[in-house]
Amino acid sequence: MPFETDAQTLQDLSLTGINGQPAILDLFKPVTVGGAVKLKEFFNHPLTDIDTIRERLAAIQYFGNHDFHISLHKEECDFISFYIDQEGRATKVSKISAYADQVKNRIKPSNQLYVVTCGVRLLFKLIKKVSSAFERHQHEIPKPLKDLRQQTDDLFKSLPHDLMNGQDPGITATERLDHLFRKIKKAQVIRFLDLLYVADVLNSTAVTAIEFKFCYPEFIVADYPELVLKGFTHPFIKNPVPNDIEFTYGKNLCFITGANMAGKSTVLKSIGICTYLAHMGFPVPAESMQTTVFNGLFTTINLADDIALGHSHFYR
């Protein structure tokens, strides 16, 4: 069952940004463009399966608690994705064709040769780098990292053994690897990159959780909806005053009153942000959070506040 929400809620909570306003999404900073795309997917598709939510939370917490790091370079990963997406025919594995191409490109270098040569070398290096990271890290790992390790192992084992001397592949070896990456193992390479971009998001989210002192929500199974937040704040407020709130069976309605610019709409938005992020499997701006799984979130706050500047709509 998908998590239901609407454009009004995304705007009310400043989740993905609108009209140049600060966005909750911008708190998380993946290294790669693929990671940024994956992060947007996470924001667009919150979860309702408690096991999947717990798996993602455990993976993010793992990155925060363990010294496991895969050094990713934005330009290199972006180039690899561009190379894999090329529509051109993957090169044939033949010494004769390789040397023929070499002579032809010496006479008139082609952009395609540059893309293939650089793409092959960068992807070859990346697979070996990720494989080495897992070899150095022998701890039990959460499911998203297990999936990445399995995909990495499968690709690593398919690499020709005679190319493991640490040098960049030559012309003939580049053709062999291009044939492997873009024809024989293309689906596996795409899956490898997708899992790597997920890991990029999870790692960057763990960094944000540490920087902003977010907590990891606890999801419970109960007969009735429950939501208990302790010390929750809005992440855009400097020196915020924490608040607590509790919704349980027989206690599921709350009236918030106060003077103009007292922070009523900010409290409502903060509760919504915590609830939304939790259902993404992300840490939340609170000291603690305990909740059941909800199947959606809808808000109609629709006030022209500017939280970043501390302006209420009454102020305007």
What tags apply to this protein structure?
single chain; 316 residues; mainly alpha; Rossmann fold; 2 domains; four-stranded mixed beta sheet; 10 helices
Please outline the helices and strands:
Blueprint (H helix, E strand, L loop, with lengths): L6 H6 L20 H12 L5 H16 L8 H11 L10 H13 L3 H26 L6 H16 L12 H14 L1 H27 L5 E2 L7 E6 L10 E5 L16 H16 L8 E4 L25
Parallel strand pairs: 1-4
Antiparallel strand pairs: 2-3, 2-4
Structural write-up:
The chain has 316 residues and is mainly alpha-helical. It has helices at residues 7-12, 33-44, 50-65, 74-84, 95-107, 111-136, 143-158, 171-184, 186-212, 264-279; strands spanning 218-219, 227-232, 243-247, 288-291. It has a 4-stranded mixed β-sheet with strand order 1-4-2-3. The protein is elongated, with a radius of gyration of 24 Å.
Quick gist of this model?
The protein is mainly alpha-helical and 316 residues long. Helices cover 50% and strands 5% of the residues.
Biggest sheet, spatial arrangement of strands:
1-4-2-3
Rounded to the nearest angstrom, the distance between the terminal CA atoms is 41 Å
Number of beta strands: 4
Helix content: 40-55%
What is the N-to-C order of secondary-structure elements (H for helix, E for strand)? HHHHHHHHHEEEHE
